[in-house]
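note to self: the first set is below, dont mix up w the second
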Amino acid sequence: MFRDSFKYYKSRNPAPNLDDVIDLENPDHVKVRKIKANISDEQDENNFGLKPAEKWIIYELLDIPGLIFIQNPFTPNGQRYWIIKCLKDYSKEPYKLNIDAHNILANETWWEICFQMSERAKILLPKLRWSTLGYHHNWDTKLYSENSKSAMPMELSGLTSILAKTLGFSDFKAEAAIVNYYRMNSTLAGHTDHSEMNVAAPLFSISFGQTAIFLIGGPKQEDSANAIFLRSGDVVIMSGSSRLRYHGVPKILSTSRIPWDDNGEDNREIITYNYDDWRKARTYIVEARINMNIRQVLEPGQIVLY
């Protein structure tokens, strides 16, 4: 059962045995289908921190049809750029944060406060758990509303468009996103993403920072579950019959590799970031994980919610 697997991997004492966790960097013992990328001119115009698509390693898990995995398609600069975006830009208005309800911020941003040497910064830094972009997900009603939305960040829409087209999802449109900020003791309870009007469209999940154990089961809590390692830069796409499966994150693990510190450069790189911003962001990501999950809300041709 999903709940039993979640409890097992969440355990701290005793620590779980990780031998059965699927490692798609070593897929020899996993039933997978290798997918060839659809090469698009769009990526040449703006690569959004991505390696050339012909270098991507893409699998579909045969035991979980529709679950697609891209092994870190980002350059080191790309990882730095997106980590800064999540921490500096996606943690302030017009986006909604979990800490908004507590009136902690007064004409300040979480970023401005949290990278100062102060007691207030130490207290506030771990309190940020999520932000919502585009259509803001209502955690109480589990609904989206035309009265609660902001513009989707253009760069995030562009990134997702390239990922979608490279995988053949040419009609995908990014309309909502949730950015989750995990500390090392954080978890994400098992759930299904069914709030969107259009659950036929794929869901894109992009991870940065420390390693997660991603648990995915079936359409019911009673179904068995598989655990998968997700490392910094990895992208998971829940499409087809995998789109409404139960999934969650029972554990965060310290990463054994730090790809954002690699020196490899790509002469196509056109993204830029502030090095002082990266110095601050790096202190955060060495003991945290960030996940961006992007979804389409509306049906094809639908203009607004009913």
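second set (the one i keep forgetting abt)
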Amino acid sequence: MSDPRPVGVFDSGVGGVSVLREIRSLLPGEDLLYVADSGHAPYGEKSADFIIARSRAIAGHLLEQGAKALVIACNTATAAAATELRAQWPDLPIIGMEPAVKPAAAATRSGVVGVLATVGTLHSAQFAALLDHFGRGVKVVTRPGVGLVECVERGELDSPATRDLLAHHLEPLLSAGADVVVLGCTHYVFLRRLVEDIVGPDVRVIDTGAAVAQQLRRRLGSLLSDATTGAARFWASGDNAVVSRTIGMLWRADMPVEVSPLHV
């Protein structure tokens, strides 16, 4: 048994392409659909009601395109909307994101873990539950990475301004003694090289993109495609020229990006 229908993936913007790349690497035969809601990025500054409404609309669009599963490639949208989406579509495999507090707590030697994430993620009940379950016995220092999503949306991955902003956000984590830094936003994964350069070789940097791809494979089971090469299709809200250029750079291919029917 196999299922040729595509997998739907969405994020507040282009950051979820980091997860999409992990899915493509692990499941090369799957057709992929991706929506970048860049016109409303970052979600971390939006209300829960707004994020739920956008997530429902985007999920509906992906299901209209035949998606057999959904990946919420956004920590903030997962925290705000995953429960509502699963309630609305109880038979649909829906895989979300969460900051890697558990593996970070297991990896720390100093007993201090730093988490760089959006305001929405850090203030969510989901994150509080992660700290309660897995953060005991370690000190978890958090920092909202204000402005970093916008840098990635513009494709500014290694500019001096991006590096300075990133160093500003990482400094409190390092000063607190963190020897593990969690990238709690899919956008931040594209800044990983800069992060590693700033924190140095003695600090481990963790994200959850590969784990999400593995969870998707487990959840699909018999729904996996038996194709050897899958296609990808992209939609975006916001400035299509800017988003297309950034997605092409991050996906490492010149892909056409369609204007989302949910543009406004």
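remember for set 2: The domain at 101-207 is CATH 3.40.50.1860 (Rossmann fold).
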